[in-house]
Specification:
Blueprint: E1 2-4, E2 10-17, E3 32-37, E4 42-46, E5 49-53, E6 57-62, E7 67-68, E8 74-80, H1 90-100, E9 109-111, H2 117-131, H3 138-160, H4 167-183, H5 190-196, H6 201-211, H7 216-234, H8 239-245, H9 251-262, H10 266-279
Antiparallel strand pairs: 1-2, 2-8, 3-6, 3-8, 4-5, 4-7, 6-9
Helix pairs in contact: 1-3, 1-4, 2-3, 4-7
């Protein structure tokens, strides 16, 4: 079921099973995707990392994730783009900027308990009903249901993670990750992001040291590497093109950076990927 209009808002709600065509898992077709495993335990490969999903686990993906080797017995997908939620409310925007969608160092997986299942089931059922409605209130209703689901997931994730920090400090870290997601291909220095947050680089680094096991530059580099691996492994772009797209003026600087992080040069990484595909 698909909702879209002439102002570019897009929402897809879909049931999938083990006979569904692989193209159904095309995460890149929308900005954000909830995948709710409704069948038995299974695995999903995201950016070449294997994740195990139990029944009623929800994995949350964005369009920079490459999904492959999926074997769902039964699952539900909710896929939507940013224009659909542009005016949905500050609390939802904060959830999106946080661990739900822009925590680029990991893929969030929520385990829905039995006593929590009714709220998610009810939201899904109403979604399916409203997707079939064609009156002038459909858009508002669909936004409201999606907002409810995002908040349910954010609340669940908050329960699963103990955050030993003030709300303001946590907001700064979330905002930093959101900024990295937006500018990682152009700006590689901590000073740029610190200025966007009205902080000095030292203050930002001190904040990270008290709340995280990663530094700001770690987050920037990890996000660059996620994109670099994807482009090298899954496209035919030259290494020079990939380096340029990621803001590197010359291929040598990019190659040194990549090898330092991966242990292989970009060319070696691509060759290894090709050999793996042939052997597979």
């Amino acid at each position: 079921m698909v909702y879209e209009n002439n102002t570019l808002e897009l929402l897809k709600v879909q049931e999938i099973n083990n006979t569904t065509n692989f193209s159904s898992y095309d995460i890149a077709s929308t900005d954000m995707t909830f995948v709710w495993n409704r069948g038995c335990s299974t695995s999903i490969v995201v950016n070449q990392i294997v994740y195990e999903l139990l029944k009623n686990d929800i994995i949350i993906l964005t369009n920079h994730h490459k999904v492959e080797k999926v074997g769902f017995e039964s699952a539900r997908l909710i896929k939507f783009n940013l224009p659909f939620i542009n005016h949905i409310g500050d609390e939802v925007e904060n959830s999106l900027k946080g661990a739900l969608f822009f925590n680029v160092t990991s893929v969030p997986i929520l385990s829905i308990e039995e006593n929590e299942l009714h709220a998610f089931e009810t939201s899904w059922d109403i979604f399916c009903i409203e997707m079939k409605s064609k009156d002038n209130m459909q858009y508002d209703m669909l936004q409201s249901i999606l907002k409810r689901i995002i908040i349910l997931c954010a609340r669940k994730l908050k329960k699963e993670k103990t955050v030993m920090s003030s709300a303001r400090e946590a907001d700064i870290l979330r905002e930093f990750r959101f900024l990295v997601e937006s500018y990682f291909a152009k700006h590689h220095d901590v000073a740029f992001y610190a200025s966007k947050l009205n902080k000095s680089p030292k203050t930002l680094s001190n904040l990270f040291s008290s709340l995280s096991d990663r530094t700001p530059i770690d987050i920037i580099h990890e996000r660059i590497m996620v994109h670099a691996r994807k482009q090298i492994y899954h496209t035919t772009k030259s290494i020079k093109e990939i380096a340029y797209d990621l803001g590197y003026e010359d291929i040598q600087t990019f190659s040194r950076f990549f090898k330092n992080k991966e242990g292989l040069s970009p060319i070696q990484y691509r060759e290894r990927g090709r050999q793996t595909q042939v052997n597979f």
